[in-house]
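Researcher: I'm comparing several assemblies side by side, and this is the next one on my list. It has 352 residues spread over four chains. Same procedure as the others: predict the full complex and return the structure.
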Amino acid sequence: MADVNSLHRLPVGASAQFLREAEIRRGIELLYFGYSNMVKGADVHLATQGLGRAHHRALYFIARRPGMPIGDLLALLNITKQSLSRVLGDLQERGLVVQAVGTRDRRQRMLSLTPAGATLETELFECLRDGVTRAYGHAGQTAVTGFWTVLTGLIPPEDRPLVEALQQPLPARRTA
Amino acid sequence: MADVNSLHRLPVGASAQFLREAEIRRGIELLYFGYSNMVKGADVHLATQGLGRAHHRALYFIARRPGMPIGDLLALLNITKQSLSRVLGDLQERGLVVQAVGTRDRRQRMLSLTPAGATLETELFECLRDGVTRAYGHAGQTAVTGFWTVLTGLIPPEDRPLVEALQQPLPARRTA
DNA sequence: AATTTACGTCAGCCATGTTGACGCATATGC
DNA sequence: GCATATGCGTCAACATGGCTGACGTAAATT
């Protein structure tokens, strides 16, 4: 390989290759640092409650799809049921999450947040929200759309329905 | 709060609020799933070598900034020196990384990859690259730029120089 | 000469993932 | 109706990769 500083001496193909590598590394790095920084604030808040990031993930998805059965949550988190059971046990002990027997299928356990759980989830969401809102605001709508497009492209097509299902509107609920 | 299904009945402010929350949750979720999927392939390859994600991160940054001292790597990884020392120990045992006494400051330990380390890092990079290349390709250049912009916005301004320094061209090296 | 800095190291702990095995209640298919 | 499959719970053991605290040593700085 030629000197990295002598791009003008590289054949066109190699130059394009080099630029592509730089752009890919940039994406990898920004994704890593962006994700790390996004969750940093939530981690601090979680620590004050004696909880960790794993608890947050469960809390987050249960908030997002109340009534979700265990199996669906396992599919989203992509961990073993043994790992999840420890996390859910902690959350139930603390009165943040409750289970109900499934209506359609009585083997299922439908998960939902208690009011205390919903409160904590909201606080944690706000930790993430502040950073994301700032980033969206400075970047503008076009950039945000591109951000979504690239990230969606990183998800294998067969897994996309799972993620997109999270964005469907929830069935009507009454909170008043 | 009104029924989520009846947006037309919401006051304008509440509607905008709701849309903003949906967009933020979408970003959070895509960032989580996008990152998870990006590193999935590399994790498999690492496992065949008896290494983990932590080893990959060290390897990655050393490849990116050869000659980087320990302290700089610590700042990038944001972990304790005790954690890093376990990881670096593994990598040195396996002959993937070497240290050299600093030239300007003899207290520093400059890290670099051995040829075997560089080979492994290249293989791991290719695992990530395939997914990122596909995502970039389907999304297009405008989307990629937006992707970078939003992610950069997630990084606190005071930390950005650290990340941007990674993207500076390397000092000339001879590999021929 | 005193202090600070960059790094190494020992020891123990915690969070969160893993595998494997087994049990029970319910749903489903023949 | 009975066999089988599915959804979930649980016990036990282990791996990875973080953490804190304490202490040491060489080299740079003041």
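Model: For your comparison table: Helices of chain B lie at 12-48, 53-64, 70-77, 81-93, 115-139, 141-154, 160-165.
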